[in-house]
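Before the break, one more example. Copy the sequence into your notebook; we will annotate it together after we see the structure.
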Amino acid sequence: LSENPFSNLRICDPYFKTEDMILLKSFFDIIPNLNISILTHKQQYEDLEVFQRMWNSISSELTGEIKIVSVCFEEDQGKSPIHDRWWVLYDDETGKRLGRRLPSINGLGKRISEISEMDKSSINSFNQLWTDFFYDKKRREGDNRLIYAEIQLK
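Here is what the structure looks like once it is written out:
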């Protein structure tokens, strides 16, 4: 990563946990001004402030940015419109992108799993999904209305 610096990391993981914030600290150690955006499942946490408290417990400062957006179905908040996990690094200036499909971070090293590289087409599909849910806050998925919550860590 340090040889090919990126400016942004987009994480789409409906099962992202507060404990996963420790991994984000490692990214900031390598790329201090990184902007990290996370799309997760709202049902996981009633109060997204748990992410701020966790960050404060592992780091005294935030050198880049972390923004978290959560989404779920309004009628069944235990379900998310997103199931898969993707992590995509990209750079605003060069347009360079590097994407990975991931298994559960919790399960890495504990179960047989695969981290697979995303090709250009997969990254483009991911970017459309990202725009729909993270930026545009898509209101419906099929017949289901969606609700969102967000937090910008300090």
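The chain has a mean pLDDT of 86. Strands lie at 8-12, 35-41, 65-73, 86-90, 97-101, 116-117, 140-141, 144-152. Try to locate both features in your own notes.
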